[in-house]
Amino acid sequence: METIRGRTSYDMDGIELTERLANYTDVSIDLGAGDGRFVRCLAEQSKGKFFIGIDACRENLRANSQRKLPNLLFVISSAQSLPHELHGLASHVSINFPWGSLLESLLKDDACLINGLLSVTRPCAGMEVLLNADALSTADWALESGADQIERVLNAAGWKTTSRSCLDAHALRSIPTTWAKRLAFGRNPRAIRLCLHRFK
Ligand SMILES: C[S@@+](CC[C@H](N)C(=O)[O-])C[C@H]1O[C@@H](n2cnc3c(N)ncnc32)[C@H](O)[C@@H]1O
Fold first, then answer.
1. Mind listing the pLDDT tens digit for each residue in 113-169?
2. Residues 3-18 pLDDT 10s
């Protein structure tokens, strides 16, 4: 699979990945990682856990992927064709403020994405999905009904909802992703957080 540090791409195979993960029990994947700020912050705070940020766009990842942290890896991949090297690794997945084809795939129950999520996670893995009003409106969904639809898709695929909450500007400001900050100070600072866990 293609990994990236700064401007440099590196092809990492499953053996090398297993070596990197050898000392870690918890592996967290952030799908649609954007500039990678979220996983970089978490990796700095939680040195006993391993974090993998995945995004289809390499340019945004350049700055944060330069940080040399032993528990952090960035992978360039489409969410709809996740690398087989990640199979069964993740104890947790986050999808923060998806847009474009990532959001469409969640809304449309795209088997390539949904099966990929099952493939990269362990049984009983946790998942957190943050959805914002503007992104859903560009896909022709209102915030509540779009979140309902994504919750239905994930529930049907084997993810049970453990909590659902609304986020306002104040709540968004406390989430350490670049997009959360942007939304918090924008004209429509409304989002929904879905927490789920895998039950099959
Ligand atoms: C609104 S940004 C959010 C970035 C980051 N999660 C944050 O909160 O700052 C959405 C991200 O999803 C990524 N994305 C969209 N479709 C994708 C796909 N099919 N596969 C992988 N990444 C995708 C985009 O490249 C972009 O970085």
1. 999 999 999 999 999 999 999 999 999 999 999 999 999 999 999 999 999 999 999
2. 999 999 999 999 999 9
* Residue 144, token pair as written in the block: 């509540």
Q: With a 6 A CB cut-off, is 179 part of the ligand 1 pocket? A: yes
Q: Sheet with 2-5: list strands edge to edge.
A: 8-11, 2-5, 72-76, 50-55, 27-31, 90-96, 121-132, 191-198, 159-167
Q: Is 96 in the pocket of ligand 1 (CB under 6 A)?
A: yes
Beta bridge partners of 30: 53, 94
pTM: 0.98
- In the structure encoding, which two tokens stand for residue 45, read together? 């705070």
Q: Best of 30, 102, 129 to mutate for ligand 1, by most ligand atoms within 8 A of CB?
A: 102
